[in-house]
Amino acid sequence: MKNYEPLDKKYIEIAEKLKGEILTGKYKEGDKIPTIRELSLLYGVNPQTVNKATAYLASMGYLQPRQGIGSFVTRPSLLSKNHGIWMLVDKNRSRLFSNLNEVSSYHAKDIYLSYLLEMNQRDVPGGFFIYEEGASKIPEDFREKARSAEGFIVQGSLPDSYISFLVENNIPTVLINRRIPDKYKNKGRLGSVLIDNKPLEQLVNYLVSMGHKRLLYLLSSEFEENEVFKERLSIVRKTLEGWGEGVHFDIFKYHPGDPDYVESFKKKIGDGFSAGVGYNDISALGIYSLAHMCGMSIPENFSVVGFDDIMASSSAVPPLTTIRVDRGGLVLKAIEVLDVLIRENGNCYIEELFPTSVVFRRSVVVRAL
Asked: 323 forms bridges with which residues in the sheet?
């Protein structure tokens, strides 16, 4: 089994810059890129770092080194045009396909479109396979799909039956924002790209520092209490515990626009809850309409923050303070990890942490005493 170090070292940063210049056409197929020395001066790093970056790109199929001459741009050929990369999507998420213009679909929409664009750019077959989350058996149509697949990218919680099948058949698979089960870390070719939830600590500390001592963890009924929900909940809870006594929080589940939740929300505010942390942006933005139905406003009566930074967050009134996730970059990182798995013949697993950052806007104010 091979365990890989994170792919975000300095030479990877250089490789990503070069790959971006190749993909945008600065360096076209057949072009010779600058020498190692020239690139080391350009990026302000030592030649050894640049040499590792170009070797990495060569292993991915973007460069072809020629001894004594230099490196030339090539078309990635790791993925056969006869064997595509397919995205597995759980049935619950697949309902988003019916209307990708709904605000609740924005996060998934960016992921799906980024994936399809990358497949198109690579000229590799791709598409979606919908699976049942609780499936105990593998359907025959998936077995057929797997026979012609170079690899899979998974959006959602994959059933154990599917993971077991993929491991047994040594099919490269990358999970987006889901951890690899421990029992499979020494088997097959599996990877995961996890969204970094740690900036939640910064947001929670920010709210408390603004005088908000009673916080709600918000969940819209459009979403389930999955492992991501629980992990973020744990971060919120532990961060608040660090402030000691006098700081409290509660979970508030609601249905957006439902008048039945107006009184519940009013009661929470009456109990001293002055701010909310959304499981995601949709769970945060839904509170805007609920506050309006209560005759209150954001952030004067209730401050709120989210997670994802979907398009609607910046256009909301007021704009939502949130944690930015580069969803296009997230998909590219997943495909990058898949490329590594495809090159490996033996057992290996990779877990990558995808960086996120806090975006401060105007949905939080100092709590009035």
From this structure: 358
User: 250 to each of 10, 208, 265, how far by Cα in Å?
Assistant: 42, 15, 12
Angle of CA points 190, 73, 123, to nearest 5°: 55
Strands ordered across the beta sheet of 248-254: 248-254, 214-220, 275-278, 303-305
Question: pLDDT per residue over 166-213, tens digit each?
Answer: 999 999 999 999 999 999 988 899 999 999 999 999 999 999 999 999
Sequential DSSP letters for 51-109: HHHHHHHHHHTSEEEETTTEEEE----SS-TTSEEEEEEEHHHHGGGG-TTSGGGHHHH
User: Given the structure tokens 């791709």, which residue do they identify?
Assistant: 126
d(CA 232, CA 263): 26
The set of residues, in sequence order, having a beta carbon less than 8 Å from that of 117 and lying 6+ positions away, is none
Instruction: Examine the fold and report which residue of 11, 41, 73 is the final residue of a domain before the chain moves on.
Output: 73
Q: Beta partners for 214?
A: 248
Angle between helices 140-147 and 160-168 (to 10 degrees): 40
Task: Give the integer Cα–Cα distance in Å for 196 and 320.
Answer: 19
pLDDT confidence of residue 326: 94
Among the candidates 73, 95, 113, a domain finishes at: 73
Q: Does 48 lie in the same domain as 14?
A: yes
pLDDT grade, residue 52 (50/70/90)? confident
Whole-prediction pTM value? 0.77
Q: Are residues 184 and 206 in the same domain?
A: no
Instruction: Enter the tokens of residue 179.
Output: 């951890």
Judge residue 231's burial from the number of C-beta atoms within 10 Å of its C-beta, 0-12 exposed, 13-18 middle, 19 or more buried. middle
> In the chain, how many domains are there?
3
More confident residue, 101 or 137: 137
pLDDT tens, 289-324? 999 999 999 999 999 999 999 999 999 999 999 999
Count, in order, helices (H) and strands (E) of the chain: 13, 15
Parent domain of 292: 199-306
Helix, coil or strand: residue 216: strand
